[in-house]
Amino acid sequence: GRMRESARVEAPAVRFADVAGCDEAVEELAEVVTFLKDGSRFRRLGARMPHGVILHGPPGTGKTLLAKAVAGEAGVPFFSVSGSEFVEMYVGVGPARMRDLFQKAKKSAPCIVFVDEIDAIGRARSAAGMGGNDERESTLNQMLVAMDGFSSSDEVVVIAATNRLDMLDKALLRPGRFDRRVEVGLPREEGRLAILRVHAHGRPLADPEADLGRLAHVSGGCSGADLANILNEAAIQAARHDRDAIVWDDLVEGQLKALAGPEKKAKVMSGAERRVIAYHEAGHCLAAELCPTHAKASRITILARGQALGLALYGQTDQLLLSPQHLHERMVVGMAGRAAEQLTFGQVTSGAANDLEQANSIARHAVETLGFSPRVGQILVRQRGAEMGLAEATRRSIDEEVVRLVDEAYRDALDLLAAHRPQLVALAEALLAREQLERAQIERVTALPSAPRQPADHQVLPTDRPPVAEPVPVLLPAPSAPRPEWAPDEEPEPVPARRGRLRRLPATVTAAAGSVRIRRPRARRPQVTFVTDAVGAFRDIRAARRGRRLAG
Ligand code: ADP
Ligand code: MG
Ligand code: ZN
Question: Strand 78-82 and strand 8-10: pairing?
């Protein structure tokens, strides 16, 4: 019975025009469409079209949609299965279903076979750990056998999708199998605008041009699916208010709801708790205002939503290259909620736990995957999801570096907010009074005169500092008795001076248009300079390490 229900077949009505913001992917796939429509043209010239195309990119970027559009444009049947369906199946069922699928597909050629979440069956054997899953492997083998069995006259194109290309078994990516790889990335601003235009169809907006442009601008980091969701939530919001058209306010509400969940009117909070949350969010927001490379908040709120008690919504910028300074500022802003609580009430509440998690993961990312810590070095910590055999000392220094980076960010956040206390108070009090502040209001409130104080000009990773024997102690303001109610007219508490100066960063990462240069002068090592494209930079560090090992 389970074998019968194997693959779904449909004749999609989706066209390339329904997929926006990924023109390069569309261009690549247009060739597949031509092949499916008119294969003889290629065969006459001896061209062998790829039988396998792999679409990779973050979730919700339109991979499934693109695959359907290929079938839709070519007017051929679309068979689809998901790799995850093959997990946890009875022995022998997986391969049998695969065989069945490909037999059916061959009979209905020309057609598309779409394998979603191919990483579920095509994971690299080493990453699967000991033993492995025989059923998974034989399902994968069955698929490869079927693909290898295609002759050049078989007009079946297999399209697979994954968000973990790095996890896939090399056997899958061999020539003759999935040898075409098409990246479907998160859309940039123009892409987001194009996607919004597609989904705004049939949803009347009060001021379509201005509002969609504005939304595209402030929705950095959103996928196509997120954007579609935002517009849908906005339409629901407008209908609820019985409006004839969707207004800007509905779009902002839609964005908040899509990203953080619905507003929780029922969540009862005491006055003291509201205060803590207001100062916490004001801390994040103010720190972002003061950090030059950080995106500014477009809205902050202390109305509870989903899991969050308060929220600052940042208009993320489309950034491909992360500098150490930018990562530092992200951590400063992340820790600023805690810092504001500490400065104002003398203690940190559990509401700030999530920020700690975020700052820690940024620091770990910087040390473990970006090779930004000269103390730890350009070591590869993880490959294909599996940790490399690291020396105990390396592992310890990684942990120490993470602690140091987060501590420094916290200290910087404390300094920054202490130097701008009047703004912090004004912002928090405005939040308490209005519950929600828009960009214009944030600007007005934080425009109070104050001593200019920028975040430390140190980079995330000062390097030529002697190795620390012990983790640097965190300098917190002396724990004073908790003061749940802070009177705005009180004198600001003195903050202890920073310990030690941080020296310059010898590993400079300079971003120029489309290229990255990594230079690491070290006394005892030859100078290594790479000039590569941005995306390849990490791969090259890896290659360089391998080379050094071979040479030495
Ligand atoms: P993926 O397969 O990459 O996870 P999907 O193709 O399932 O993403 O996308 C989910 C939905 O999000 C689509 O049905 C579509 O409504 C919307 N969407 C995603 N990306 C795009 C895009 N580039 N253009 C238009 N709509 C998109
Ligand atoms: Mg999908
Ligand atoms: Zn926070």
Answer: antiparallel
User: The tokens of 9 are what?
Assistant: 């077949």
Burial class (CB in 10 A: 0-12, 13-18, 19+), 198: middle
- Close Cβ partners of 378 (under 8 Å, ≥ 6 residues apart): 371, 520, 541, 544, 545
| Ordered DSSP codes for 191-245 | HHHHHHHHHHTTS-BSSHHHHHHHHHHH-TT--HHHHHHHHHHHHHHHHHTT-SS
Helices (H), ranges, 420-475:
421-434, 439-446
427 by DSSP, 3-state: which? helix
The residues, ordered by sequence, that sit 6+ positions from 363 with a Cβ below 8 Å of its Cβ are 327, 331, 401, 402, 405, 406, 409
Q: pLDDT of 200-227, one tens digit each? A: 999 999 988 888 998 898 887 889 999 9
- Concatenate the DSSP letters of all residues of 291-347 into one string: -TTSPPEEEEE-S-BTTBSSEEEE-----S---HHHHHHHHHHHHHHHHHHHHHHSS
For residue 384, give Cα distances in angstroms to 112, 132, 236, 308. 29, 15, 42, 33
pLDDT digits (tens, 9 = 90+) for 263-293: 766 666 677 888 999 999 999 999 999 988 8
Query: For residue range 460-475, what is the model confidence (pLDDT) as tens digits?
Result: 444 443 333 333 333 4
Across the range 526-535, mean pLDDT stands at 41
What number is the average pLDDT over the span 186-211?
91
- Per-residue pLDDT for 109 more than 90? no
Ligand 1 atom having least distance to the Cα of 59? 4
Question: What is the average pLDDT across 83-91?
Answer: 74
Distance separating alpha carbons of residues 394 and 520, to the nearest angstrom: 19
pLDDT in tens, 139-149: 888 888 888 88
228 lines ligand 1 (CB under 6 A): yes
User: Quick one: tokens of 182?
Assistant: 């098409």
Q: Is 198 in the pocket of ligand 1 (CB under 6 A)?
A: yes
Measure 427 CA to ligand 1 centroid, in angstroms.
Answer: 38
pLDDT confidence of residue 449: 58
Q: Give the residue numbers annotated as catalytic, written as ranges.
A: 281
**Ligand 1 neighbour 371 (Cβ under 6 A):** no
Contact indicator for 198, 232 with CB cutoff of 8 Å? no
